[in-house]
Specification:
With about 325 residues, the chain is an alpha/beta fold. About 50% of the residues lie in helices and about 15% in strands. The strands form two sheets. Strands 3-2-1-4-6-5 form a six-stranded mixed β-sheet, with helices on both faces. It has a four-stranded antiparallel β-sheet with strand order 7-10-9-8. Helix 3 links the parallel strand 2 and strand 3. The longest helix has 28 residues. The chain is elongated, with a radius of gyration of 22 Å. The protein starts with a helix and ends in a 5-residue tail after the last strand.
């Protein structure tokens, strides 16, 4: 925690800057809150907590209020409960909950003037993220896992295991909540967690730590490739159509990233784009046989016509 706070120079952190912990009531986030409270007492830096109640289970308000009380007892101030409404069901519920949670945290942190919001993701979460990236076949960026910081959000516990956060809570006498949704196989992350446990059992301990280390190493590579892809994008027209020759001249290692940029610029939701979409676009360059337009997320149509690539939204008939 101390290292994470010391490295927050990019967040314009001063001695008077408010830092918030995002808390769910589980062991990871409460261990995070306790660590932040300890550093606040040591340095005098303002520190608080935001507890998010997704309202997805009976008794969720009670869990949120109990977590908020624990944070106040640790000495954090301000401590607030944010109640959000999640629209979605089944496998889409996880992503929907994540989106509204981050939006609520970002909005309230801005209102409070907080310099950073700390998240309780651990080394285990990072390993699961990498494993999911492997199953999607989405390339280097997907395998680089969660960043230690992005914008206002910071993850100080990526080097700490889930077991260690539970031990930390036990050592401090903190009662935490075990979310039953963490055992619900409807959610992809739960299935990834079980698969990782199977790998640890069958191949030996240390698989999770190795995946997390791989993510850290690959992130530097992915960051560089993103910079190079951005430079390649600048060599193309500002808007479609794009010359086939210009796109084909971009190195293969960068072209998938450039395709993604072009599709997002045209209106495709970034979270809906995968390697299958960018690979299909690339076939318009590498294996052109007169195929028809591609139907992509965001109601986009991508086609090759007279040596140019067109990216068009569908025109709806009123």
């Amino acid at each position: 925690m101390r290292t994470a706070l010391d490295e927050l120079s990019g967040h314009e952190l001063t001695e008077d800057s408010l830092v918030l912990a995002a808390v769910s009531g589980g062991a990871d986030s409460l261990a995070l809150a306790e660590s932040l409270a300890f550093e606040s007492r040591r340095t005098g830096r303002p520190a608080g907590a935001l507890v998010v109640d997704h309202g997805l289970q009976d008794g969720s308000a009670e869990v949120a209020n109990r977590a908020a009380l624990t944070c106040r007892e640790l000495g954090l101030d301000p401590v607030e409960v944010l109640t959000v409404k999640v629209s979605g069901s089944g496998s889409g519920l996880e992503a929907a909950a994540r989106d509204v949670r981050y939006a609520a945290l970002e909005r309230r942190a801005e209102e409070l003037g907080a310099a950073a919001v700390l998240l309780g993701h651990t080394q285990d979460d990072q390993a699961e993220q990498v494993l999911l990236g492997l199953t999607r076949g989405s390339g280097t960026r997907s395998l680089s896992g969660m960043p230690a910081s992005r914008g206002r959000f910071v993850r100080p516990l990526l080097g700490v295991t889930r077991e260690q956060t539970r031990e930390a809570c036990a050592a401090e006498g903190i009662t935490f909540w075990d979310d039953p949704m963490n055992d619900d196989p409807r959610f992809t992350r739960v299935r990834a967690r079980r698969a990782l446990a199977d790998l640890e059992r069958d191949l030996g301990p240390g698989i999770g730590a190795a995946l997390a280390r791989s993510a850290e190493q690959l992130r530097a590579d992915a960051d560089l490739l993103d910079v190079l892809a951005g430079q390649a994008r600048e060599g193309l027209p500002d808007a479609p159509p794009y010359p086939v020759e210009a796109l084909a001249a971009i190195p293969t290692a960068l072209r998938g990233r450039v395709w993604r940029m072009l599709l997002v610029e045209a209106g495709a939701p970034a979270g809906s784009l995968g390697a299958t979409h960018t690979d299909s676009c690339d076939l318009l360059l590498t294996r052109w046989r007169g195929q028809g337009p591609l139907h992509l997320p965001g109601d986009l149509r991508v086609s090759r016509e007279t040596g140019r690539i067109h990216v068009r939204p569908v025109r709806r008939v009123e």
